[in-house]
Design a protein that fits this description.
This protein has 147 residues and is mainly α. It has six helices and no strands. The protein has helices at 2-30, 33-55, 62-66, 75-93, 95-116, 128-146. The protein is globular and about 45 Å long. Helix 2 (33-55) crosses helix 4. It has one domain (2-146).
Length: 147
Amino acid sequence: MFYLNCLLAVFAGTLIPLQAGINSKLREFLSSPYYATLISVAVSLIAVAAYCLIARFPLPSQAAISALPPWAWTGGIVGVVYVFMVLLLAHKLGATALIASVIAGQMICSLIFDQFGLIGFAQHPLNPGRIAGIVLLIAGVALIQKY
C-alpha cells in the first residue's frame, strides 16, 4: 500500500506543472494575475462542491466546525497565495526551474515541520542524511536555474 500511495503522490506531482502552465496562460489571456487566480480558485471551489454534492458526503457538524483551531482556516489563503505566486513566476522561470524551486521550498518547510512536529506532522529530527538531501536539492535548483 505504501508504494501505491507513493505512486499516487508522484501522479499528484505531475499535476503541479500542468496547473502552473494552465494558470500562466490564463493570466496571459486575461492580462491579469489577480483575475486568473480568482478564476482558478473559483473553478476549484465549484468542482469540489459539485463532487461533495454528487457523492452525498454529509456536512460536518457545527460542533466539529466550532472546534477547529484558528490556523485550520488559513489553508485556503495559503492555496491562493501559492496559485498566485506560481501564476506570476511560471512564464519567467519555466516549468523546470519553477517546480524545482517550489520543491526546494517544500522540502525546507517540511524539514522544519518534521523537526518540531508542527501542525500535526509526526516528529522526525534533523539528521545528516536529511541535511545532505536538502543541500543537494538546493544545489540542483541552482544548476537548473543557471543552465
